[in-house]
Amino acid sequence: MSSRRPDGSxxxxxxxxxxxxxxxxxxxxxxxxxxxxxxxxSMTPGVExxxxxxxxxxxxxxxxxxxxxxxxxxxxxxxxxxxxxxYAVPGVGGRPIFHRLAFPVxxxxxxxxxxxxxLLAADCAELATCPAPYDGYVTRGDANELYDQxxxxxxxVPEAWIAGKALFAVPNLGWVRVGVDxxxxxxxxxxxxxxxxxxxxxxxxxxALVLGRLRRGRRR
Length: 220
Fold this sequence. Notes:
The chain crosses the membrane at residues 12-35, 187-211. One of its GO terms (cellular component) is membrane. GO terms for molecular function: serine-type endopeptidase activity. It is found in: Membrane. Helix 3 (174-187) crosses helix 4 (189-219). By secondary structure, the protein is α+β, with helices and mostly antiparallel strands. It is elongated. Mean pLDDT is 76; it is low at 1-6, 14-30 and 189-204. The protein is 30% helix and 18% strand. The strands form 2 sheets. The chain has a 6-stranded antiparallel β-sheet. The chain is built from 4 helices and 8 strands; from the N terminus they run αβββββββαβαα. 25% of the residues are buried. It has 2 domains: 23-171, Umud Fragment, subunit A, CATH 2.10.109.10; 173-206, no CATH class.
């Protein structure tokens, strides 16, 4: 009677490995989830639709404080100067917005005086977001023709709305996240989760089968 050692590459191993990597990455960058999937082309060419972007907390060392495109010593992030951030407007719903910080503004400021006139649809008197109601930032998608605050996408963005800033992008890997979100929206989170666990188990089983055959082949 022969005995076999337990094989650590069972059906749940891939799912556990992915979860462990995500948890470790989240601990490193200080945000959860530690990445976002880009669903629009508003940040091309630096970030394309379907890319997966790793984000960090805004105050996380060693990446420093927030920097805007107008800062003289702004670092280059994803194809341009200044930080690209993830922010959400409270009470509006919808997806978080993934755009670049153009420049900071102070409460009560006519921020159009410092803006690029080609990125404005109107002057301060005609914009609901001007003068700035509070301290914050003017933002824009690199590929968009107007500032978010001129296009009606968002009001001036205070730092409290910013969930994280981008570090780097992995091309095309975000399509997985986009697909999962689309499936969850259509079929529900529970059904999608069951399918994903099943697929992870299937992948783990196939991987264990392949590894087992390779090991047996080496022993011969």
